[in-house]
Amino acid sequence: MAKIVHREELAQGTIILNEIEAPRIAKKAKPGQFVILQADETGERVPLTMADTDPEKGTITIIYMVVGKSTARFKDLKVGEKYYALIGPLGAPTHIEKIGKVVCVGGGTGIAVLHPIARAMKEAGNEVIAILGSRTYDLLILEEKMRQASNTLHICTDDGSKGHHGFVTDVLKETIEKEDIALVVAIGPIPMMKFCSLITKEKGVKTMVSLNPIMVDGTGMCGGCRVSVGGKTKFACVDGPEFDGHQVDFDGLAKRLASYTEVEKQSMDAYNKCKCDAD
Question: How, if at all, do strands 242-244 and 207-210 pair?
Fold first, then answer.
């Protein structure tokens, strides 16, 4: 079991931050890796990439959006309460080296995944240009942490409430036209990663994305997290979660993620009804 030692509600309560006791994972984890959490004995196993680690405190930080029954159950957990199960670190870590100018593009909870990568890239001596996006400024997360993890920070909002009035792809396109960019790291919603990759492919800029397909065991045994990369089947849990954005079949990934939409809705409705009955 893993105890929650700190909890925050972000983005008007739609996104939750948990700092969790996990000393062995905190010592071994590297940027880009993830853990799998389970709220209770019968709960779903949910993969979440770590937003931060503190080896001295022996804690890891995860940030998630409440989108269904499992994450709603996670949200119900308070400080001092424990996750039933936590395993990790899983997945291949991000390859970090000094390569020049790196653009880190993040949207939604993808910013949490992006944070340790941007910080490590900057610590390695790279010039990091961060581009963060959200529908409205109230929903943007980790702005100050990303400011510290980068040399230049751009904010984009769909409604113009902060920074550039428009999409992260607008600023990305302007940046790669003006600067000599060695690498783009794009993490967020599938459409965002897809269109970032299309822009950088046209300009010949190497691009890395982090994928979040349906996952069960996290060790490559079940095959549930398979994705098509360069026409070949890869398993996100062991081959990724990071892949060449120019090779990923984003449309196929989107279809797989939508496979259980109706079942997920039914499960969430039943969970909410159960909570209302209990009240």
Answer: antiparallel
